[in-house]
């Protein structure tokens, strides 16, 4: 018996991203959710002011979301927050692959061995997207909420991944010769960055030396899958005084070995030597 062909589920104009193919009301609604996600509670007026929207528009959207448990309101402070069902929907992204699931024991071991917060991230749309972390118990620690983004050229995972890409792919992701500078240590000259990527490729780990945030360092290494392609990165982050120069090689080797362990869990071929 012949099975019915499954419909593609998208119109012929799917690739057309022009304004006529976007929904303005839906666009505003997503802006409201993103606004709430960027803060730890906002009043209706604060959301309206930040987005330059009419309070009545924000009110209707928030209450619609509340009815679907996508947002919730604190009755005492009258502040709005992201709701539990929005978290559930967002978590569906993590279920698309086994990367995060397989990374959890590796991240925990990495945190135990280094004493610093361990992270995992992937490249998405020219940035690093953090997926998960295991936090250190120290009072002062790095924190990257799942969904946080970071620049490729000024993050440990970003540079670890760039070191695995060919020049054509790097140029597509970083087309400008001068990159955004965040601190005095940011490698904003592309040629200098390329030289460091060669070093990273040879030794197997990358260093973000306060290049994104003053006082914070990050050591990272790339993760590869069964095809040998770099699919993400793993890192540890912490205050510079707990990650001094004298510890960097030790931490770098630990992170590199953790990345190899996770890569093997994803089916990466074993390397000789």
What does this structure look like?
The chain has 273 residues and is an alpha+beta fold. Helices cover 40% and strands 18% of the residues. It is built from nine helices and eight strands. Strands 5-4-3-8-7-6 form a six-stranded antiparallel beta sheet, with helices on both faces. Strands 1-2 form a two-stranded antiparallel sheet. The longest helix is centred in the last third of the chain and has 21 residues. The termini are far apart.
Sequence-ordered SSE layout with sheet pairings:
Elements: H1 24-37, H2 44-51, H3 55-67, E1 71-74, E2 79-82, H4 84-91, H5 99-114, E3 117-124, E4 127-134, E5 149-151, H6 156-162, H7 167-173, H8 190-203, E6 206-209, E7 216-224, E8 230-239, H9 245-265
Antiparallel strand pairs: 1-2, 3-4, 3-8, 4-5, 6-7, 7-8
Protein name: IclR family transcriptional regulator
Domain IclR-ED: 85-268
Keywords: DNA-binding, Transcription, Transcription regulation
In a nutshell, what does this entry contain?
The protein contains nine helices and eight strands. It is of the alpha+beta class and 273 residues long. It starts with 23 loop residues before the first helix and ends in an 8-residue tail after the last helix.
